[in-house]
Input
Amino acid sequence: MAGAPEYKLCQTCADRQGGGPEAFEIVRDGDCFICGGLIDRLDSIAGAATREARPVEFETFGIGLSLPAGVQEREDELRSTLRLKGGQTVKAHVSAILSEKISHQLKRRVSKTSPDLIILIDVAESKVFLQSRSLFFYGRYTKPTGVAQRRELCKNCWGKGCDACERTGYDQTPSVEEKVGKKLVGLTGARGAKFTWIGSEDVESIVGGDGRPFVVELKSPRTRKVPRRILAGGKGGRVVVTHGRVLPSKPTMLPTFRFVTLITATAGRKVNRDELAGLAKAFKGRSVVFDRQNAKPVSKTVYRVRGSSRGRRLRLEAELDGGLPVKRLVNGDLVSPSVAEVLKTDVRCDKFDVCRVRETGEFGFG
Output
């Protein structure tokens, strides 16, 4: 390679170029044109990353790397000037070396597709940041009356924080979201919890039986083990989570379900036994239409309705598809046929409890 400019490289950077020994002068790492001593610091960098990652629970990891300014550019300049194809880039090479060292020290596998933990290394600043893959947890909750499903923004300040909400920005009604979310964050060391609900109910509703299913995303957890049963107490009573399990990834589709509910309602007039028998007959495996606002109507099935009456007071047990609102099924608002329609009188749903939820479909995963 006569007349080619002479570059001073450390042995590691020279071996990576494949340009032959006549192109370079081999020097110590600190004098290397490309890395400027970076290669000599990799043991120290790997040690720092290992110390940061060791307290975190994970099986697989990946490396994200930020090199000092100019390192990659100098290698590109050298290869362009000497017309060298070269092998790995300096960034890919350093990443591979660090991955191997960290893997050896922590006894954990490297994954390039979906690692549990990404170790982000800023080489210039000698800083290490950890980014743990979200954990998706499935469970079923039971709750007493007076506990809402979701946290709601404070209606006085709408999230800004005020005296009424104790500066939290949220309504102070206890909720499953707050109680279970706080418990799960504490158990896993996650940075936050985002819930996906499979059906809903009122704050006054009791959820019993095996509970209502839900999924929660735990963001950047430090541990990936969650117990199957969780007790979340405090203000408003105890919420119990059972059947807990960690899902393989974020669900792309939630399971369909059907549920049994116990309804307390008030009719516009007295309802007799014959009318209740007619109600049971009318809703035996009956398809009803829910004419949703700003969306296409959907057809749902009511499998059975049976009940008793005391004057105008009704007590109904119904089994129906998930996604059909109980109160609308009772009063006829956007749902037909309804309890009110069959009884030919106004009927108001005062309260409904969830007795049993049965999943009729499966999760979908990407």
The first strand starts at residue 7 and ends at 9.
